[in-house]
Amino acid sequence: MPESSEPLRKLGFLTIGLFDAADPRRGHESTLEVIELGERLGFDSAWVRHRHLQFGISSPVAVLAAATQRTSRIELGTAVIPLGWENPLRIAEDLATVDILSGGRLNPGVSVGPPMHWEQVKDALYPETAEAEDFSYDRLERLLGFVRGEPATDFSGTTGFEVFSDRVQPHAPGLGARMWYGGASLRSAQWAGEHGMNFLTSSVVKAEESEDFAEIQLAHIRTFRAYHPEGTRARVSQGLVVIPTDSASPEQRAKYEEYARARTPRTATPQGPARMMFAADLVGPSAQIAERLWAHAAFREIDEVAFALPFTFEHADYVQILTDIATRLGPALGWRPAPASPAA
After folding, report:
1. 203 CB-near residues (< 8 Å, 6+ apart)
2. Would 5 be classed as within a structural domain?
């Protein structure tokens, strides 16, 4: 471990939760079992992606509500909820409810902007208000206010036998401090810092001042902390695709290497009009991956990660990958597993 880097303090993982359209329950059950496994292995957090009109988790808040009843310690996060699909008041109620059910373990990650394939979905999503919808940071500010206990209405009191609150109920103390922004640009990093959020930086960033992924990500982290009230203590979690092969079978190793090889060309140069840069997938023995991470300028700046699981693998592959991360890669990065819960 280089002397200039701190040991990894929090180790998490991220899954997309794919399922077969003919049998969606099996895929959702697999996701819940993976989260349960993560808790047993001592991971600090488990995160789920958000996919609308696809064969992945479309309602991470509902899935995590189920996970609260099958775990007792591991933190549960969303990476990320695209707020263009959501009403800030309603999602604030859902988030608060799940946080209460979890005992204060929810870490909602969100982003702003128009929904993906906006022209194709706007008539179904907002048939009467599509042109008036605001997908800017203002939408997120409303959500933050509701989660943090600001009034949602100027009315409170009793009507007949019903009692009304002017704030979102239930109120979840501490949830406001556990809100994360999934950012890929300098602007989003600055905004998240200015508004006291935590910052999720993933394997995708926007090439603005450089075409070196690590340099770009490092600039985002430092910009975020420069504008955050807590400065260098502000929380940042890095999410790269990491696939250790220590206990993998020869067939699994071949599959993992082919997966990474097929995705490598997109890491060479910025992609598309938005000039998005993709990080290379890290595949190999844990000792080798640890060396590559310590050499990564952005990794050396953080002490929390949520390693992303590949999209299309089988349940047994995720078991092997998570087990190797927890028992081999994590310790190689200076991480220690969380103690087992009394009920485990």
Report:
1. 239, 240, 241, 278, 279, 281, 308
2. no
The answer as to whether 14 is a domain residue is yes
CA distance 221 to 215: 10
Q: Where are the alpha helices (DSSP H) in the chain?
A: 24-41, 60-68, 88-102, 118-125, 137-147, 186-194, 213-227, 250-263, 286-294, 315-324, 330-332
Taking every pair of Cα atoms in the chain, the longest distance, rounded to a whole number of angstroms, is 69
How many angstroms separate the CA atoms of 53 and 261, rounded? 28
The answer, as to whether pTM is greater than 0.90, is yes
56 part of a folded domain: yes
Q: Look up residue 298 and give its two tokens.
A: 């952005």
pLDDT tens digits, one per residue of 133-181: 999 999 999 999 999 999 999 999 999 999 999 999 999 999 999 999 9
pLDDT the model gives residue 332? 98
For residues 17 and 309, give the distance between their C-alpha atoms in angstroms, rounded to a whole number.
10
Q: 342 falls in which pLDDT band (50, 70, 90)?
A: low
Phi then psi for residue 252, to 5 deg, are: -65, -45
- The Cα–Cα gap between 111 and 84 comes to 8
> What are the tens digits of pLDDT across the range 300-310?
999 999 999 99
Q: Is residue 316 part of a domain?
A: yes
